[in-house]
Design a protein that fits this description.
The complex is a heterodimer of chains A (about 550) and B (about 325).
Chain A lengths: L1 H12 L3 H12 L4 H12 L25 H12 L3 H11 L2 H8 L11 H13 L3 H14 L2 H11 L9 H12 L3 H11 L2 H10 L17 E4 L12 E6 L3 E8 L2 E6 L10 H8 L4 E12 L2 E2 L2 H8 L6 H6 L2 E11 L2 E2 L5 H11 L7 E3 L3 E2 L3 H13 L4 E6 L9 E9 L3 E12 L8 E10 L2 E8 L5 H13 L1 E5 L2 E4 L4 E6 L1 E4 L7 E4 L2 E5 L11 H11 L2
Parallel strand pairs in A: 1-12, 7-9
Antiparallel strand pairs in A: 2-10, 2-11, 3-4, 3-5, 5-6, 5-7, 7-8, 11-12, 13-14, 13-17, 13-18, 14-15, 16-17, 18-21, 19-20
Chain B lengths: L3 E3 L2 E4 L4 E3 L12 E3 L14 E4 L1 H10 L10 E4 L5 E4 L2 E7 L7 E7 L2 E5 L21 E6 L11 H17 L3 E5 L5 H11 L4 E3 L1 H4 L2 H6 L7 E3 L9 E4 L1 H9 L4 E6 L8 H5 L3 E3 L7 H11 L3 E7 L1 H10 L3 E3 L6 H6 L3
Parallel strand pairs in B: 3-4, 4-5, 5-6, 10-11, 11-18, 12-15, 12-16, 13-14, 13-15, 16-17, 18-19
Antiparallel strand pairs in B: 1-2, 2-3, 7-8, 8-9, 9-10
Chain lengths: ~550, ~325
């Protein structure tokens, strides 16, 4: 682990992609097999790898995530260093990174004991099994006191899932290939099939890449769609299959003659939350992996995502809840069917497989209706129809698209149009994290009312880095009060925000909240008194509940 | 002695003296100001009378603009270790090692010993005088790096890193570019590179002050003015803004950032430099604590940087301390020069 930390530190130090890959490969190459597994795991999926899903098929009691929050990391640091909360808060705010702060503050505090990768794995396991925050804090404090500060820095970064050294999974794949003297493409393909880079790395070293196969009950990454900002940008409309874009829980069903497990994005298992769906799949013959979406469903229509959410939080679902929130599975794609891996076949062929899997399926299992369009006008019409059915918009998939796990390529596009836009005024700003830690990049905004400005939401995406930089200066000089990372500012800056809906909410002073607000642009041309008022928000809300 | 902490400096009404008055309004010059060093966030504006070390006054004069209807300031040079009487007080200058000429001021008045550090560094600098710690009752100190996350390199380690990076780049056929502020850090970096035998190309804003350093006995062999067209095979020392210009010029350039802020990884994003060399002409956290402890001060006023947290840390160690100036931390961070 000490060498891994040093390798990461060196990788951060060079900006050339090739040099980063070479440095990582130089670190990986001499490792023994079990260390290679761990090192690649820490660098790609983190310590919370699903512990032996195949072996413990239905025993899902063991936690798969360490669930260590920033609070625990800080409290342990407080205990190990003696710095109080206030000082730690400022230090964290300056670095914007928990691992880095711990590493910096532990210099001269921690002992110099070496940490091996197996040692690290054991510590992660102990942290994962510690069930109370107090216990986690105690363990972490002890870790802080024993090992080298640089090692702790990356030990924590691996927990918080952000190395921030400019290393992407694709680069780890390339480093594995370089270290094992195999072509990068073969590592990538094997990783696409298996979705488990550590095991792929080991196979690469043993010359067994070709025999890597997708395994059932081991979740694979989902293929994602790139947003299509303007319909006009869509080339060759006739080459795409078009489906409604549903707003549910994207899921992957693995089934093998009566055995069923359902995974959501983030590789979490959700089988227990949807027992009726799992039992519907038990009747499907053969075996396979199907990509789709769980939807709350009534009268042939998908219900609001908020309704579906009630089903997720529960460990055990009561029969009454199943009645109150009826759920269906909407099938999109087939990735594996009866031993045949379909990733490298065309969508058209995969769709046929999906249809044959769900032929004679129980009523809870649907297939996403598919449309074709000849012209952009057709696409536009389909979009409006989708919205009328209460769905978000459209998903467009090239007919010849392969299934590329974990990728967001132009082969799939999503077309959403905002529900509405508002010109709002910034009333508070917060420092971001990571690369944005030095800027005020998260904004709370408000609409006008008869008695001043009332907050309605918060957004942080949509502006360019240059704009954030400029805004930071302006907001800093307009600030009236400071609370930690947050400043209150005079209401002067106007933003145009887009959002997908308006809800009543006690959370904001305006009494409303926006769904998925994002910044469209900075309205430098508008003054605060030219922004939208609460009456317009009320009108939008009223139009949405009709 | 009465102290007034204002937005444009510290006022000592009992003896009619300001410490680092930075009033921009040239029409109403202040009567008299001590100039701790010649950075423009400390020595600025045209005052009636100024006191400073000869080096500080020389650079102040280089930068000063005097309006036609205005009188040039009357300058009182005060060498290190020398004292002068001032309205019933005795003023003595001591090295602060921040940049060339930077000084602490000891003010003895009515049995009290007050020390104003100005910007200060305790460890020896790459080029400049070494700080003395002055025993006092009351200490006014800066805290640019007054958080425990800031531990900076010694001059030996910094010099080693600067040389190593320059050599590594040149060996690989690339051009190393170091960014430093025009006065202080810039000359320190040039001093290291030039004396290590690198052909060193120096940006005009930094080169301007090299003769002043030379007059104080520092030698800069091998340096030449920076030319945009002839950079290959040289080590460049440029001002921070120019570093970005170089990088986007598409030349084969790698940048190093020599600064206390380089102690944090996000400096890489802030300045865009690849190599971070955490070295500063300000004291780091441990040096600040040491300085306070060795001064024996009964009360400490913290006036720049992380004022409130650093005063809080001092109090938690049983030292009476306050952060009288209510300037925002961030403003000071950006004003580091």
């Amino acid at each position: 682990m000490d060498e891994l930390a040093q390798a990461c530190e060196d990788i951060a130090r060079v900006s050339s992609k090739l040099k980063k890959i070479q440095r990582l490969a130089a670190y990986l190459q001499p490792l023994n097999d079990s260390d290679l597994l761990l090192a690649v795991q820490f660098l790609s999926s983190g310590p919370a790898a699903q512990p032996g899903i195949n072996q413990t098929l239905f025993a899902t009691e063991e936690k798969t995530s360490l669930s260590i929050g920033r609070a625990v990391i800080r409290e342990a640091l407080q205990m190990a260093t003696g710095w109080d909360r206030e000082i730690l808060r400022i230090c964290f705010s300056e670095t914007g990174d928990s691992g880095e702060t711990a590493g910096l503050l532990l210099r001269g505090v921690s002992a110099d004991e070496p940490m091996t990768l197996h040692h690290a794995e054991d510590l992660y396991r102990q942290l994962g099994l510690a069930h109370t925050s107090a216990r986690k804090r105690e363990l972490l404090t002890r870790i802080y006191r024993r090992y080298r500060p640089l090692t702790i820095k990356y030990f924590i970064k691996i927990i918080t899932r952000g190395l921030r050294i400019g290393l992407m999974e694709r680069m780890v794949e390339e480093a594995v290939a370089l270290a094992c003297h195999v072509p990068a493409a073969s590592v990538r393909e094997a990783n696409n099939r298996l979705g488990d880079l550590p095991k792929v790395a080991l196979a690469a070293r043993l010359g067994e890449l070709a025999s890597i196969e997708t395994r059932l009950f081991h979740p694979m990454d989902f293929m994602l769609a790139k947003p299509l900002e303007r319909l006009e940008d869509l080339a060759e409309p006739a080459h795409w299959f078009i489906e409604d874009k549903y707003d549910g829980i994207r899921s992957q069903v693995h089934f093998d003659q009566g055995q069923v497990r359902i995974f959501s994005r983030g590789m979490e298992e959700v089988t227990q939350a949807f027992p009726e769906i799992a039992s519907a799949w038990k009747n499907i013959p053969g075996k396979g992996i199907v990509d789709g979406e769980l939807l709350a469903w009534r009268d042939n229509k998908a219900l609001n995502f908020n309704i579906l959410q009630q089903r997720i939080a529960r460990k055990r679902v009561k029969a009454t809840l199943i009645q109150e929130v009826p759920v269906i599975f909407m099938g999109y794609d087939a990735l594996l069917h009866n031993g045949a891996l379909l990733l490298n076949t065309s969508l058209q062929a995969r769709r046929q497989a999906l249809e044959s899997i769900l032929e004679n399926a129980p009523p809870l299992l649907h297939i996403s209706p598919r449309h074709s369009a000849a012209t952009l006008e057709d696409v536009d019409r389909l979009f409006l129809e989708s919205r009328q059915r209460g769905n978000e918009g459209l998903l467009l998939k090239r007919k010849d698209s392969l299934y590329e796990p974990g990728k967001r390529t132009g082969a799939w596009r999503k077309l959403k149009r905002p529900f509405g836009t508002l010109d709002v005024v910034i009333t508070a700003a917060e420092q971001g994290t990571g690369r944005r830690a030095i800027y005020f990049s998260d904004y709370t905004f408000a609409v006008r009312t008869s008695v001043g400005f009332a907050n309605i939401g918060k957004a942080y995406s949509g502006l360019t880095n240059a704009e954030i930089k400029d805004l930071t200066k302006i907001l800093r000089s307009a600030s009236t009060e400071k609370f930690g990372r947050v400043i209150l500012v005079k209401p002067e800056v106007v933003l145009e925000v887009a959002f997908d809906g308006v809800q009543k909410s006690p959370r904001h002073k305006s009494g409303y909240a926006l769904r998925f607000p994002r910044i469209l642009r900075w309205r430098k041309d508008k003054k605060a008194d030219e922004s939208d008022d609460i009456a317009r928000v009320e009108a939008l809300y009223n139009s949405s509940i009709l | 002695m009465q102290l007034q902490f204002t937005e444009c400096g510290i006022h000592l009404p009992d003896i009619g003296l300001w410490l680092d008055n930075t009033k921009l309004d040239n029409t109403k010059p202040c009567a008299a100001s001590w100039l701790s060093h010649a950075h423009s966030d400390h020595a600025r504006g045209c005052h009636a009378q100024v006191i400073g070390t000869p080096a500080t006054l020389r650079i102040y004069r280089m930068r000063l603009s005097v309006a036609e209807n205005q009188e040039a300031p009357k300058m009182f040079p005060l060498n290190f270790g020398e004292s002068m009487p001032w309205n019933g007080a005795t003023l003595t200058a001591y090295p602060a090692s921040h940049i060339l000429g930077a000084a602490q001021l000891l003010i003895e008045f009515a049995g009290e010993r007050l020390v104003y550090t100005g910007d200060i560094k305790l460890r020896p600098p790459l080029a400049g005088d070494t700080t003395e710690v002055i025993p006092c009752n009351r200490l006014i100190i800066e805290s640019t790096f007054g958080l425990p996350i800031y531990k900076l390199l010694t001059r030996e380690a910094a010099a080693q890193r600067i040389i190593r990076f320059a050599q590594e780049c040149l060996d690989e056929g690339q051009t190393p570019a170091f960014t430093g502020y025009p006065l202080g850090r810039g000359q320190e970096i040039v001093h290291v590179l030039a004396n290590a035998g690198f052909r060193t190309a120096v940006h005009g804003a930094i080169a301007k002050f090299i003769p002043v350093y030379e007059d104080y006995g520092y030698r800069f062999p091998n340096w030449q003015p920076y030319e945009a067209k002839a950079t290959a095979g040289k080590a460049l020392v440029v001002v921070p803004d120019h570093g970005r210009v170089l990088e986007s010029s598409g030349k084969n350039i790698r940048r190093a950032y020599v600064s206390g802020w380089a102690a944090l990884d996000n400096a890489r994003l802030r300045g865009g430099a690849e190599e971070l060399i955490p070295y500063s002409d300000h004291a780091d956290f441990d040096e600040l604590l040491e300085l306070v402890a060795r001064s024996g001060a009964k009360h400490v006023d913290v006036v720049h940087g992380y004022t409130a947290p650093f005063a809080h840390i001092l109090r938690s160690r049983g030292i009476s301390a306050s952060a009288p100036q209510r300037t925002s931390d961030r403003t000071n961070i950006e004003a580091e020069a």
